[in-house]
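BUG: 3D viewer hangs when loading the predicted structure for this chain

Environment: internal workstation, default settings.
Expected: structure renders.
Actual: progress bar stalls at 90%.

Input used:
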Amino acid sequence: MGHLVGKDVYTELGKTIDRADTRAPYNPVLAGILKELYSPQEAELVARMPLAPATFETVRRTTGYDRATLERMLAGLCEKGLVMDLWIEGDFRYMISPFMIGVYEFTMMRTGPDVDSKTLAGMFREYLEGDDAFFKANCDDGQQVAFLRALPHEEALAPRAYTEVLDHEKARVLVESADLTAIGLCSCRHEKVHTGRKECDAPLEICASFGPAADYLIRNGMARRVPKGVILDNLDRARELGLVLETDNVRRNTRFLCFCCGCCCNMLLGLTRYGYPNFVMTSNFMARVDEKTCSGCGKCAAACPIQAIETAPAAGTGTGRTVRPVVDESICLGCGVCGLSCPTGALRLHSRPQRVLLPETTFHRVVLQALERDNLQNFLFDNPHSRTHAFARGLAGSFLKLGPVKKALMSEALRSRFLSAVEAGVTLLGKGWARKV
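Structure tokens produced before the viewer hung:
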């Protein structure tokens, strides 16, 4: 349509995606991924869309496209996972897919003749592993708000800790309370299959989605609807295979449940390969060893998906063992995979001294992540073509990037009031529904 005459639409698209709650530094590899996924017309449309969720009419007014063209292009973008159409309060809300969780996952969940999974898997691997620019952009500045959180395998909990586990920490409760459930391909595992990096026996089609996220994936052919019993069976399978249970880093209305392994999961590899623990929030539990009953077999160290357990000489303990496990509490996820492998029950999950604070909702998580990554102003003033919004973005961005300001707003003392203020502002703008996205 010629809106971006004289500009490289893929550069503009890259800038747009980098403004999301997940940063995605633009480089030649990302440029290649975008050219593989988006036609020039699609790239131009997405670059012109509001970053925050918007109704169809808002997208139409902002982009200037006629109704028929916009309907056709949005449908195609949603089918490819490049735009999300979420059914909220009786209407579709359109949202640009961030790089992660979004473009990467949805692309690798797709199959069929219209997607070159092998080529894309290689390009994604090069972008994520070629250097650590992606991980640095999202984790290198002391960020506290993770994308995912670990859930404990309840079978690995110590008796006292079991009585303290809350409903939002129980994978089975999350499944049973969902109003719609679906399963699809594990994007990380699918990518590793095509790049020859899959070392585990875990199945491809196992990751679960709930509610509006499941509805979106089902409608666009990236997942299939299943009864809850299928996912509950997968929980049993995950326990047998020693997979980490990971879910959305929120207390309410979780959207997905992943079954992760150390060889495939990019979030876990971000920790083990680059040393960034910020992608996955720990559970409220931690692995600890009962020295009296530990046999020193080393199975827990072999099972740990993030190498948080090492074996050390056991000389002088009076137990007759030659080695003993040592847990690195600074990175232990509290997933319980190690405890599942312990034949004597010596290694169990115990409550952490201080409970982990989680964002209440996805809205809260996105706001806090965007604040940490210096992108919140892009959601608050999201019209990319308004001079007034551009001025406001610049002003707010300069203020929110100040270290003391960001630290204060993220603190326990002010965070709740800050989030309440953002919610009130969104409601005054007539976008109260955004709190449910």
